[in-house]
């Protein structure tokens, strides 16, 4: 896992490094939000492992938000998320993304990547990358953000063999990827793109697709299972049902014996 850090706004305090393990967030003597050693004094904690980063909030705590959304108990974080606590914004940052490849380099693209909105007006929407996507305020943009302060043409997203290429095409302040300001970058699956401080997008990789050989093998296995099911003899009857003819025969014999006993016993 890369070196994740919590960064204060305006860098007024040193970044808080987050190594794998559990980190308690509390307050120092001045009331500032800091990492504390005493877990009992924590108001929240971050658990960092190979699966990601988990934020757990002390029961009853109010006023903690992630990307503007309140967190009551637990939330899974990704690089680029903003944690608001006690009026302070802590930004979860990652290493700077790889630089974008130079113009004019022809690299096979994986157009199955998608860009999914997770915040702002495009929350919940997905955009495929069979063709490049232009982000901006202009009416011909593929991902349109119609706000006065937003550039007519902000950036361009295009598929790449290793992810998605972000190229700035006219923004004022650039973009933010995983908490790092950039203008041009190569985005990988899981990276978070933030535009104008509120419009969030995540790069997502396609789910694994079966090859033709695997699909054929699965189909043959399914047909074999169906044939075996059709050829299987009917299931055996329950034991109680199998015993019924013998019980019936025994009852007939007993009835006959009783009839003989009554017939000859009265003489």
From TrEMBL:
Q: Which domain of life is it from?
A: Bacteria
Which keywords does this chain's UniProt record carry? Membrane, Transmembrane, Transmembrane helix
PROSITE patterns, alphabetized: FHA_DOMAIN
SMART domains tied to this protein: FHA
Q: Which residues form the FHA domain?
A: 133-182
- Residues that span the membrane, as ranges: 244-264
Task: Name a Pfam family for this protein.
Answer: Yop-YscD_cpl
Q: What is this protein called?
A: FHA domain protein
What does the organism's lineage look like at the top?
Bacteria, Pseudomonadati, Pseudomonadota, Gammaproteobacteria, Lysobacterales
């Amino acid at each position: 896992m890369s070196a994740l850090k919590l960064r204060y706004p305006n860098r007024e305090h040193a970044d808080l490094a987050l190594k794998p393990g559990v980190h308690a967030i509390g307050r120092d003597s001045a009331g500032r939000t800091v990492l504390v050693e005493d877990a009992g004094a924590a108001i929240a904690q971050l658990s960092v492992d190979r699966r990601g980063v988990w934020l757990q909030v002390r029961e009853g705590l109010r006023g903690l938000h992630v990307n503007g959304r309140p967190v009551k108990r637990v939330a899974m974080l990704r690089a680029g998320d903003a944690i608001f606590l006690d009026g302070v914004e802590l930004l979860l940052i990652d290493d700077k993304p790889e630089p974008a490849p130079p113009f004019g380099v022809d690299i096979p693209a994986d157009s199955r990547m998608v860009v999914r909105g997770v915040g702002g007006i495009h929350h919940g929407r997905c955009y495929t990358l069979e063709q490049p996507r232009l982000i901006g305020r202009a009416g011909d943009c593929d991902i349109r953000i119609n706000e006065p302060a937003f550039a007519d043409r902000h950036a361009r997203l295009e598929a790449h063999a290793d992810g998605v290429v972000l190229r700035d095409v006219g923004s004022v302040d650039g973009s933010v990827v995983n908490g790092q300001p950039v203008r041009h970058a190569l985005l990988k699956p899981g990276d978070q793109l933030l535009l104008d401080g509120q419009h969030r997008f995540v790069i997502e990789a396609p789910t694994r697709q079966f090859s033709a050989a695997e699909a054929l093998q699965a189909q043959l296995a399914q047909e074999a299972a169906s044939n075996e099911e059709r050829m299987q003899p009917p299931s055996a009857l329950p034991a109680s049902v199998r015993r019924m003819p013998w019980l019936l025969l025994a009852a007939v014999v007993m009835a006959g014996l009783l009839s003989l006993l009554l017939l000859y016993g009265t003489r």
